[in-house]
Queue: 2 jobs
Job 1
Amino acid sequence: MPSPIIATPAYQDAPGAIDFLVTAFGFDIHAWYEADDGTLVHAELTLGDAMLMPAVPDQGEYGELLRSVEAAGGPTGGSYVVVDEVDAHHSRAERAGARILFPPREREHGGREYTCRDPEGHLWTFGTYDPWAVTPGDG
């Protein structure tokens, strides 16, 4: 079953962010809806069984509740994504313009990961550690 939790990060330039997320991180466009004037009003991106719906601050009722990373003064959280090939993923993201904060490295709780920011400042960590495959307490 696909994940019932769907993240909705705020992006000032949602079309640009979607292009980056597809190119750098390997997301696929699941759905794209535009207003009559061609403005993006809703998009759905998938990566494996996960979905992401980029939102636009100040656009629509839900968007009025959101603040961009810039408006908030920095990220208020981040996303962790399980990937099989950290080094290859890191290279792809770096080539696409992700700002690498922590290069690929082994972690004390297991797995290998790297952390970066996307062009609008959202934090992303990609790693091999899969918390669903670990029994709590086994770390």
Job 2
Amino acid sequence: MGCVDAEQVTMLREVLAASGWLDRTREFGRALRVTSRTPGGLLLVGTPAEDPWHLAAHLDDESRLGELPGLSPTLVRWSPPPGAPAHLRVGLERLEAARRGETLFVVAGENAPVPLLERVDDARRTGATVLALESGDRELRGLAHEALTVPADETLVSFEGAQHLVSAAAGEEPAARQGRGLRRRLARLLETVSGPTLD
């Protein structure tokens, strides 16, 4: 666990459990895991201001470590540069091809713009499952089959911290929830949120 000891992880788990965040992110992570079973069928998109790079990397890690190929996301970008590698130049047209059996995961720390909402609505109509991690966007939440809201005034878990919790929960097997895998993931989260040590 590096600089994070078991006592710190236990403390973080107790604080988050008391707040309900662990349960909420586990439920959302489970929805992500069970709907994302088709390799290449998890479409991850953010807003024009921010592509969810960090979450894409964590989901890819969870996919590899947990042998869950459906969790490896296709990062859909608003303005992919033409010279980028193939996996980094997937544009919004991919959302137009979304179909039944695929999952569209929208990550929006701000209100989703109308062009994104329209594409999400279209994807839902063609049978894709829509999940949303948002910060109070009622329109986006209304289009999603499952949504997790991180209020802008939330003090315990940041929007980035919630992404860490969701990715860890998505890769977590139900029987292993209390095991070493969760402790390792919480240790990573603690280091990200609080730095290598706690005062």
